[in-house]
Amino acid sequence: MEKRPRSFYLLAAFFALFLVFLYGPTFTIAILSFQGPQGGLTFPMRGVSLHWFRELFQQQAVGDIWGSFGRSFVLGVMVMVATVVISVMGGLAFRKRFPGSGVVFYLIVTSLVIPSILISLGVGLIFSQAGLKVHWSTSGFGSQLTWTLPFGLLIMFAVFNRFDKSFEEAARDQGANAWQTIWSVVLPIIAPMLIGVALFGFTLSYDEFARTLLTAGSYNTLPLEIYGMTTNVTTPVIFALGTLTTVFSFLIIGVFLLTVIVANKRRARRGSDAGKGLV
């Protein structure tokens, strides 16, 4: 067996340290959330129990945890749907060059490099000056789209640049109109990528802080609520909340991955059935 070079072990050690740096804080919070009733915010732990998880579901003296969670979830779904729909429409539009397409593309990319807090400030000022109410479902929704849409559009640009147009031509040869071609041919083929864009849209919205800070109005989303709790909550209940939100995030990712697997299996089964039909 060939001996591995010393650089392999150095890279492995560096990667291990990177994983500790990446996931260490999350594991630390998870461990501290299982402290006993007398537990504090630091080590050493004082007992082990589910006390702070039970406490999380009781009426809190400070904040509106579950209300903010509901707002973040609803806002995430709104952003997710808008991101998917607009990204697909944008990807279809950019399949052909049109006047100003280059300018539009660079404007989309520029949104990613502008400081998020300036986006939040600008959107909040626009709504205020226009006499519109600054609210998480309107101004917050708009500011978050400036963050999720560029990612969705860039993904769709890459997808459609590699899309085989012969599938559409075959559908049109069979008498399908433009809408039928998109609905029955294009969308099923790019379905896994659409699920990826949806996951991007939801997760980026769910934990977005800076672009929501000045656009949420008088009602906090969950990231804003957690930030507010760090200044006045002195018990591990905040760690319990962090653990639950992390578990929820992984569940969402798992649901999306399961959806991709099921969609791929169905597409493979349909392809197999179609092949048998030709034989």
Automatic annotation (TrEMBL):
Cellular component GO terms held in the UniProt record: plasma membrane
Pfam families in UniProt: BPD_transp_1 (PF00528)
Topology versus the membrane: Multi-pass membrane protein
Cellular compartments annotated: Cell membrane
Keywords: Cell membrane, Membrane, Transmembrane, Transmembrane helix, Transport
Classification via SUPFAM superfamilies: MetI-like (SSF161098)
Domain ABC transmembrane type-1: 69-262
Keyword Disulfide bond: no
One GO BP annotation of this record: transmembrane transport
Listed transmembrane segments: 73-94, 103-127, 139-160, 181-204, 237-263
InterPro entries: Bact_Polyamine_Transport, MetI-like, MetI-like_sf
Family indicated by similarity: Belongs to the binding-protein-dependent transport system permease family. CysTW subfamily.
Listed name of the protein: ABC transporter permease
Organism: Pseudohoeflea suaedae
